[in-house]
Amino acid sequence: MHISNISNDAQILPLIQKPYTQSKVNTHRSKILLVRSLLAVACFSTLYAPFINSNVSSAALNSIIACMMTFIGTTYAMTKLSRYPGNSSLMSLPSLVLIHVTIAALIFISFRLEYSRLVLSIGILSVPITLFVQHHLIKRLTQASTYLVTPFGCFQSLKSNSHNQFILLSTPGFGENNIKHIDGVLFDQHEKLDGHWQQFLASSANRNIPLYDTTEVYESINGKSPLDHLPELSSGSLKPHWLYRSTKRILESLLILVTSPAWLSLVLFTALLIKLESKGPAFFIQRRVGQGGKEFSMVKLRSMRTDSEANGAQFAGEDDPRITKIGKFIRKVRIDEIPQFFNVLKGEMALIGPRPEQASFVKEFEEKIPLYSMRHVVKPGITGWAQVTHGYADDEESTKEKLAHDFYYVKNISLWLDIMVVFKTIKTMLIGFGAR
């Protein structure tokens, strides 16, 4: 039956499954649930066994509850973080366990609750071991997923990976590929499809085969947005929810104020070294473009000679001769960015967001890259998704690539993505990725 008159928006869009994530695979859900349950029971049975009797102490009970909450909280956080591209859930396991243990310790101290060091020690050891074993057992229970891809949108950029296989269709249909099981069909919801392709999508939905938007799949695999296949968006549709903005503002300010003795001491010590090495101010203040295209004065520790911009603004290159000896080190480990905490407290920046650029660069890139100003929808950050996944940009092509990562962050902004950036930033500081 020919159905060329079917409305794409009315019939197909409601059938799209959301969200697609890189970790989405065809899994034996009942087996995975059984594995998780058995491992949790085994873990806490081991923990409980020496203490189960009629005279169990409140200290032991409090400690057992803390360990159970650490297990549940870490499992939940690992599941959330594994949604983002380039992240292995095991990478964040040590940090998440440490965070939950620290929270438990603060609760014990704040409310003067009794606790057992022995029980907590067993828990601190058993929880990460259990989650590590759980991760590998579940990985064995998963099988590769097979997706059919319609030849529209950014389909050229999709490629197979360890878990997923993408098969490009030349004509609408299932038979020619001789596939036993199909886990989903990918199509670009913003393309005008003819009746045959619409009929194929409708047939897929009738077979209970999930439909996914190609752009979302591309983003979930690559961690960036395809700039040449973006739907029409307004700045209002990208504006983060007020609750997220308020929560982030409060948490960032509290974190900066609580840790101020440590970072202020580091900044002052580094400033002294800068003054001893070369003449000129220890701090470098420069006008940058922030949220809404408004300019502000961003402060950094000086890492270059005082005449570094005598010939105008320019990007730092590899082994740039303008960079001082102290500057090379503090740029590598990002110490030069710490004074921007003052910009965060003033509300001009955030800890996490697209890096702010100079007005001259912004004007140049806006002329060459039409979507460039979209990155100003959110506050600029000291670190960001583009910095920890792409690195440094010093020309038009690398700036486009960086913008694609920035736009992914703007579209998917959330506290969980911010946490992911924090973990990647720590790794970046340790290895010096993208520093110049």
UniProtKB/TrEMBL annotation:
The chain crosses the membrane at residues 33-53, 59-78, 90-109, 115-133, 254-274. It comes from the Bacteria. The keyword Nucleus does not apply. Pfam families: Bac_transf. InterPro entries: Bact_transf. Keywords: Membrane, Transferase, Transmembrane, Transmembrane helix. Residues 248-430 form the Bacterial sugar transferase domain. GO terms for molecular function: phosphotransferase activity, for other substituted phosphate groups. Belongs to the bacterial sugar transferase family. This is UDP-glucose lipid carrier transferase. It comes from Bermanella marisrubri. The lineage of its organism: Bacteria, Pseudomonadati, Pseudomonadota, Gammaproteobacteria, Oceanospirillales.
